[in-house]
């Protein structure tokens, strides 16, 4: 019952956003919205492919797909992707993978997903260099954020140098992770699933935003909307909010306006997009999570 309780708390806290988002859905062209819902469902398939590609052993397909659906709900309750990572780590250990290898597979997945998202953004920016006015996307606190990240890197490096136990644990983990990555890439099917899924996942998410934009008549070229989505999600990756709630909405609106869209329509598109990708799957995802826990799948 705890996931459902947390979903209720989050929904009550953001009830005004939910109400406005559902209101905009009522004015949209429904064929485009149905296509957006279908693309959202495919994102869980892409995530499952990437998870399978990160390990050599074959994972049970149906349970793997159900776990990705449940992980999506967990991801919106904890910051910085911790919910999905915890669910998938538990799933892999229940499937018989040792904790060290499960952790290495999780790290490989996160690396592949990040590389795929940034590579897709770079490719689109090269193809459409005028898609964004990047200067408008840099927040006033950017230098402070970079300074904070730099300070964290320095502290982490100091801990590694001075604390032998931490250094030994990290070296052991890196050896396991590198061994797992080598094993995966000796199998073409696993490598294709890993990197194909890591590219398909952000591409499908961007497609959802494009379809929602079409449904609400956003006057922005399709490729520019995709660039706006990728740029916004890359920019908020360092903001530790549960499921990116709040930070993603703000960044997406700014990015769509930077791509040439009217502010009012861009806001409506973002609200409708978040309703489809976050709020509609949240309750069934939480129910699936509770069921998987009770069935000891995770």
Task: Put the structure in a nutshell.
The protein is mostly helical and 298 residues long.
Structure explained in plain terms:
78% of the residues lie in helices and 0% in strands. The two termini are 15 Å apart. It contains twelve helices and no strands. The chain has 298 residues and is mostly helical. Helix 5 crosses helix 6, helix 6 packs across helix 10 and helix 7 packs across helix 8.
Map the helices and strands:
Blueprint: H1 2-13, H2 15-25, H3 30-53, H4 61-75, H5 82-94, H6 99-127, H7 142-162, H8 164-185, H9 188-215, H10 222-235, H11 247-258, H12 263-294
Radius of gyration: 20 Å
Beta-strand content: under 5%
Order of helices and strands: HHHHHHHHHHHH
Helical content class? over 70%
Mean pLDDT: 82
Report the major sheet: none
């Amino acid at each position: 019952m705890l996931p459902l309780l947390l979903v209720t708390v989050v929904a009550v806290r953001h009830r005004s956003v939910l109400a406005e988002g559902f209101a905009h859905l009522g004015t949209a062209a429904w064929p485009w919205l149905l296509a957006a819902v279908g693309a959202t469902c495919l994102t869980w398939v892409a995530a499952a492919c990437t998870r399978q590609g990160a390990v050599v052993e074959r994972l049970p397909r149906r349970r793997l797909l159900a776990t990705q659906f449940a992980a999506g709900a967990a991801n919106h309750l904890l910051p910085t992707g911790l919910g999905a990572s915890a669910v998938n780590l538990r799933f892999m250990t229940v499937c018989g993978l040792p904790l060290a290898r499960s952790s290495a597979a999780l790290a490989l997945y996160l690396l592949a997903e990040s590389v795929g998202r940034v590579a897709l953004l770079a490719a689109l920016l090269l193809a459409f260099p005028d898609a964004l006015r990047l200067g408008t996307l840099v927040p006033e606190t950017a230098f402070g954020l970079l300074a904070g990240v730099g300070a964290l890197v320095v502290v982490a490096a100091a801990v590694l140098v001075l604390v032998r136990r931490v250094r030994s644990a990290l070296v052991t983990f890196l050896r396991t992770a590198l061994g797992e990555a080598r094993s995966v890439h000796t199998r073409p099917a696993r490598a294709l699933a890993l990197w194909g899924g890591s590219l398909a996942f952000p591409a499908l998410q961007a497609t959802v935003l494009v379809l929602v934009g079409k449904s609400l008549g956003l006057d922005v070229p399709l490729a520019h909307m995709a660039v706006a989505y990728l740029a916004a999600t890359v920019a908020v990756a360092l903001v530790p909010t549960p499921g990116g709630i709040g930070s993603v909405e703000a960044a997406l609106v700014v990015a769509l306006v930077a791509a040439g869209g009217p502010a009012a329509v861009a806001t409506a598109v973002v609200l409708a997009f978040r309703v489809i990708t976050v709020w509609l799957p949240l309750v069934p995802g939480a129910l699936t999570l509770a069921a998987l826990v009770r069935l000891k799948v995770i």
